[in-house]
């Protein structure tokens, strides 16, 4: 898949920018702070409705304006789709697909599939469990866009359940327990769906990460494991005949078993919002043991592996490499170039043109103070 045209209005530093791309490699070159990442961030936002840099939408809108618009024409095989996304930090985002208004912004998900690798990704291995959960959600949504709806429903139930637990302030009455239980069915249903999809993603991802790591760095035993919040859930997921039913049963048991603890602690203690991804390199946890270079290679392997998962699903995602070559030595640069150059579209940003390996010489754009020009 590839983006043929991109137009930004009041997005980040851009009042207006219009770009035309070709399949193959495009590099966006410019000095620090000129607006390179802003461009690729816009493409990534179309794919995930989130930014790889900020959790909130407000910074995406040009200072002094109220809304940003990102428009793109995306091609896959011989079809093309026009998407038009209005980002309104004060309210709901609006989406048009081929000029027809979509019911919800998330109807756009699945049209653009993109994998971004950026310096921020070091937090995939060194950051909090929440950073890895975001990766899981982003990827399960790119694979199965309906998960975005399940995720939103789950978050809503979780907020309501947590609000009730907090208001109970450590005490539990019969009526409070009944109200809490009323949320349980939905928590379990959505939670099971999310957990099973994440587990499936990790099962599919792990062999690709092993392969990518060895390709970029060196031979090593790489482990990527989904770690659910309780031993019972982990057992249900690990069983060879694991099914959605067995996971649901384990989650149901957990929810019932932890109710007293939940009233004491004032938060929901079981569910996919407590899960984690374990990463190991030669039997040591990556976080806390791996060197800077190893952590960086691991993060890159996770992203490249994720791209392979989408390819195995039959989708060729747009590969975005934001400012990554400067961090890599020549050998690793070459290995990375090797692994991405056959993608339908690769978009690279770099402050120094020389850092982009020759294998990836393609179309060049330069950005100076928010003005983009094709070189
Ligand atoms: N909402 C906004 N409104 C106006 N300007 C913004 C907004 N958000 C970011 N900017 C500006 O955009 C610029 C950063 O752009 P960007 O991150 O794309 O730079 P870059 O070319 O990728 O730089 P680097 O090489 O350092 O990564 C900064 O000058 C920043 O002040
Ligand atoms: Mg940048």
Description:
By secondary structure, the chain is α/β, with parallel strands linked by helices. The chain folds into two domains: about 1-115 and about 315-375, P-loop containing nucleotide triphosphate hydrolases (Rossmann fold, 3-Layer(aba) Sandwich); about 120-315, Glutathione S-transferase Yfyf (Class Pi), Chain A, domain 2 (Up-down Bundle), CATH 1.20.1050. Helix content is about 45%, strand content about 25%. It has helices at about 35-50, 120-125, 130-145, 145-170, 175-215, 230-240, 245-255, 260-265, 290-310, 330-340; strands spanning about 1-10, 15-20, 25-30, 70-75, 80-85, 95, 100, 115, 220-225, 275-280, 285, 320, 345-350, 365-370, 370-375. The model has no long low-confidence stretch (mean pLDDT about 95). The strands form three sheets. A six-stranded antiparallel beta sheet has the order 2-1-4-5-6-7, covered by helices on one side. Strands 8-12-13-3-14-15 form a six-stranded mixed beta sheet, sandwiched between helices. Strands 9-10-11 form a three-stranded antiparallel beta sheet. It has ten helices and 15 strands. The longest helix has about 45 residues, at about 175-215. Strand 4 (about 70-75) and strand 5 form a beta hairpin. Bound molecules: adenosine-5'-triphosphate and magnesium ion (MG).
């Amino acid at each position: 898949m590839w983006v043929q045209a991109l137009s930004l209005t009041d997005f980040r530093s851009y009042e207006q920018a219009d770009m035309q791309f070709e399949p193959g490699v495009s590099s966006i070159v410019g000095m620090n702070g000129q607006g390179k990442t802003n461009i690729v961030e816009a493409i990534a936002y179309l794919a995930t409705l989130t930014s790889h840099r900020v959790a909130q939408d407000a910074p995406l809108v040009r200072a002094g304006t109220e809304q940003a618009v990102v428009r793109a024409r995306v091609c896959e095989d011989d079809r093309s789709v026009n998407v038009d996304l209005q980002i309104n930090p004060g309210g709901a985002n609006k989406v048009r697909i081929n000029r027809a208004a979509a019911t919800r912004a998330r109807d756009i998900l699945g049209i653009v599939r993109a994998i971004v690798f950026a310096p921020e990704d070091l937090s995939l291995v060194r950051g909090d469990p929440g950073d890895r959960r975001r990766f899981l959600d982003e990827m399960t949504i790119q694979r199965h866009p309906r998960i975005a709806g399940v995720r939103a429903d789950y978050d809503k139930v979780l907020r309501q359940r947590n609000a009730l637990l907090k208001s109970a302030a450590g005490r539990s009455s019969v009526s409070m327990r009944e109200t809490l239980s009323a949320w349980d069915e939905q928590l379990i249903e959505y939670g099971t769906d999310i957990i099973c999809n994440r587990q499936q993603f990790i099962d599919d991802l792990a062999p690709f990460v092993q392969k990518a790591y060895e390709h970029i760095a060196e031979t090593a035993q790489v482990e990527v494991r989904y770690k659910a919040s309780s031993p019972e859930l982990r057992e249900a997921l690990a069983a060879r005949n694991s099914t959605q039913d067995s996971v649901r049963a384990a989650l149901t048991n957990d929810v019932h078993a932890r109710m007293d603890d939940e009233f004491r602690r004032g938060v929901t203690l079981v569910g996919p919002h407590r899960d984690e991804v374990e990463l190991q390199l030669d039997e040591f946890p990556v976080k806390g043991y791996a060197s800077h270079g190893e952590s960086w290679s691991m993060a890159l392997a996770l992203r490249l592996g994720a791209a392979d998962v989408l390819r195995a699903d039959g989708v060729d995602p747009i590969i975005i490499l934001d400012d990554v070559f400067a961090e890599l030595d020549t050998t690793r640069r070459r290995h990375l170039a090797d692994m991405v150059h056959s993608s339908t579209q690769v978009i690279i940003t770099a402050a120094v043109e020389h850092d982009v390996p020759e294998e990836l010489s393609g179309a060049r754009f330069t950005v100076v103070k928010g003005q983009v020009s094709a070189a």
